[in-house]
Amino acid sequence: MVARSAKPRFQSAGPADRKVVILRIRRTSVHSAVSTGASFAILVVAVGFSFYYVGANPPEIPAEPWVGVTGAVLVTPELANAIGLREARGILIISVEPESPADKAGLVGGNTPLEIEGGRIFVGGDVVLNINGNPIFGQEDISKSMQGKKVGDSVKFTISRNGVISDVFVILEPKP
């Protein structure tokens, strides 16, 4: 049997001197209007030390890897036909961030405007067909291919540039 009305006793801990916090919790029974109360004592010294320790020794959070492709569109059948691809898959790189890993690896963004599917996009950039050997048909394929990658990893992009298929290796850098 657990005593519900027990009050914490502080005599054995010495003078509290702002080292103890009392937390009062009230709970009302579902079956009656009777409320019960419970008191808990938390030693602020112990909690304060824990916060100090974490603040003085913060856990290392790994840097988020970055490729530097700032715009890309999924290749639709209409777009594939317009840019001369045999099948509608991959992503067309619209732009590449200057000095990014993608730029350093030589990936190219679009430079020629094209009116298609009710909008305007820039074509002439690389089309990424595979990432690390995984074919790209949608956003989920990109996410899956990049999952678990970290700064410093090399990622293989199989691209189509002007009808020529080639591999480009991008070394991931920390996201700025």
Question: What is the string of helix and strand elements?
Answer: EEHEEHEHEEEEHEEE
Q: Output the CATH topology of the largest domain.
A: Pdz3 Domain
Structural domain tally: 2
Could you tell me the mean pLDDT? 78
Q: Work out the radius of gyration.
A: 30 Å
Which stretches are poorly predicted, pLDDT < 50 over at least 5 residues?
8-12, 18-25, 28-35
Structural class: alpha+beta
The main pleated sheet reads as: 6 strands, antiparallel
CATH architecture of the largest domain: Roll
CATH superfamily of the largest domain: PDZ domain
Helical run tally: 4
Percent helix range? 10-25%
Q: What share of the residues does DSSP label as strand, in percent?
A: 35-45%
Q: What's the end-to-end separation, in Å?
A: 59 Å
Instruction: Estimate the global geometry from the Cα principal axes.
Output: elongated
- Give the C-level CATH assignment of the largest domain: Mainly Beta
Counting DSSP E segments of at least 2 residues, the number of strands comes to: 12
Task: Quickly list its features.
Pdz3 Domain, six-stranded antiparallel sheet, 176 residues, alpha+beta, two-stranded antiparallel ribbon
Describe the overall structure.
With 176 residues, the protein is α+β, with helices and mostly antiparallel strands. It has 2 domains: 11-56, no CATH class; 65-174, PDZ domain (Pdz3 Domain). The protein is built from 4 helices and 12 strands; from the N terminus they run E-E-H-E-E-H-E-H-E-E-E-E-H-E-E-E. Strands 4, 5, 8, 9, 10 and 11 form a 6-stranded antiparallel beta sheet that branches. A hairpin with a 6-residue loop joins strand 1 (20-28) and strand 2 (35-43). The longest helix is centred in the first third of the chain and has 13 residues, at 44-56. The two termini are 59 Å apart.
